């Protein structure tokens, strides 16, 4: 290390007499180093004393940069008394070396804090080991294979982030792995490790003729007022799970397994992750952090006017803690969803937040610069007299010393610039924690006031905290509703949404921190009550709006499947994970994407056709990603799928890739045992019960409600023999049934069948066979003369059994969607064509000559119109549509989607197109209803 060549600055020697005290002590050092040493001695009495004391050691030490390793080499062999003295000498020398490297500009802030933090880690580890070894020699600690008796120290705060300053306390939580001891040994082990921990703390923090190593604070442990200095890991986990608070979660952002049994400490932190990092965006943490800041400020008396003399650089306005709280709170909000945001250090945290779009890049850079400057000033304050303080001197001479150590000779200019920096930090961070007062309520009608008067009785607003946050949000909500043009409708729908919320703190905090979401919720409530109901059931989906990619291009089915597969694997592999957690993860993931499709459709970013395809992509991804997970869980009990495995066929709208917001899924499962007698597992099963039970497990995985809701309703009635048939069918039985027993309606349904999921290593071959079989059935059975007569009879029965849903019915009835779907399926069947979608099947009919071109084109046009209307209605409401009840916002959405100028035009067009379609279909059918199907 060429120390002299790397010096870029030195403090001015304000006290020249003190500077003279070190002159001549280092004759062999380069002149630049001697000048630095004189400047240091002239500004810091503490460092001047160290320079005189370590004059013989320093010249050689400056030749090597690994000061911590060098100064602690061989300490493992020392006894407790020798170690205490040696560590104090090492601390003295490391502090001196770091101060020279810091003040000379040789080391960065991270190198300075890193060296001090490395020394702290080493000191804690050595002290723990020497005292645990003493307990073992005394026979007081039961035998265990665990390193250091299973005890470990978590470095918290600045130590955990490797950000220690010159006079930092070290905050530790000391725990032990109780799994390392037998039940009968727990009490004895605990007592011995408590003694070792107390002695460790004394070794480091007691002041003697050699000084001290680090003041050691053990009060961050769980329930410190009533617990001993070392408790078991299981007791700590139980505490955090039941009683942990937001400030403790924030503290664990920086936690690091630093000493003792490092592996046990890392296991503990892994198990604690669900406590620290919540699976949903946690905007409620903002209020907690803001309250904590205010309590600290009030307790320390740090409020009021900002003046540089006497200002606390850590806790005062615009200080280090404000930057740390700003960073940690943002990390708490989003770090549960994005592991990249979990940096322990402040600078790294700011960079990660900016990279992921959680804070502006320029704000992150500015706060980073201010943070570095603040930390440098903090270090120099402490260097002067080795004082445990963060407050600037109150007198001008004291400030001049600190300014000089910062390389500044213009004291007044430095003070002015520092005040400006502090004000700027306070401005940047305060706007995040306390964005300002909300606007006043708009004028409200008596009906609106009556609705609002009910809100305090709703579950979401009953707690004091929820009321406090909602009070800030409410005026903005009401103002945006007033500007929407249909205030009363939006208010009624929001009232219904609010009444359905089980809790409100998280959601209201989300609105408080992100006002742009208020506009979205008003838009949804004012336009699409169906989507609002979905949001009320799954309010966590709003997290996705803030994730950065909510309005990005649609990724496609394959990318969705890969993303969900990764999410499932993470859920399965996490310490508290497993199959049930994977099901919850799938539901959370799917709900967010489902909500995104609905919002994009509502806002006109996609049309109904695109939405139908995206809903189908989402369903495909869910089944394709979850089927292997369900099969693996089932195989753990009954062995892998026997034979070639199984495939899942998507039928109906799923097969046609045309789903809407509330579609269920029509599925069939086909398997091939391939001559295998049974599965090979702990509880083997014959093929038929194996695949039947696997299918039931798949249905449960998709449709059963969990804590996160359900994915889809599943309908298996299209399988051979309907409700009476087995839920899983062998490929041989399926082929035989389709060729010899199936009715025409089942062949029509087969035109839409599509492979959407597989289980088993050879299932891809089975999938190819099933698709070939499907085409074979269509080509052979589609030529039978009974197809159209059967279709005519089926049509009559449908109309007789299902009454129309009224003037706005789009699905059931002559000339409506189901009617067009059936005639389109007959085209694919009679043509033996693989097409699945309705329009593609009509086109196949035209190509093959089984339908006239004019008829195919007309029905395609009508189908597109009806689908746009149907899909849009299903987004607006989960009930039968009443045009007058959907309100102005919903009406405007439907008119936009259907390209109509007014309700009268839409009404007339719906009546006209269904009439023409019904007539066209009737013309395609034989006059005689034909045979009974």
From TrEMBL:
MF annotations from Gene Ontology: nucleotidyltransferase activity
Endpoints of the signal sequence:
none
Q: Where are the transmembrane segments?
A: none
User: What superkingdom does the record give?
Assistant: Bacteria
Instruction: Cite the entry's keywords alphabetically.
Output: ATP-binding, Magnesium, Multifunctional enzyme, Nucleotide-binding, Nucleotidyltransferase, Transferase
The source organism is Paracoccus saliphilus
Q: Which residues form the PII-uridylyltransferase/Glutamine-synthetase adenylyltransferase domain?
A: 291-433, 809-900
Tell me if Nucleus is a UniProt keyword of this record: no
Q: Show the CDD domains listed in the entry.
A: NT_GlnE_GlnD_like
For this entry, the protein name equals Glutamine-synthetase adenylyltransferase
For this protein, the record's Pfam families field holds: GlnD_UR_UTase, GlnE
**Ranges where the Glutamate-ammonia ligase adenylyltransferase repeated domain occurs:** 39-270, 520-760
Keyword Nucleotide-binding listed: yes
Gene3D superfamilies, alphabetized: Beta Polymerase, domain 2 (3.30.460.10), Nucleotidyltransferases domain 2 (1.20.120.330)
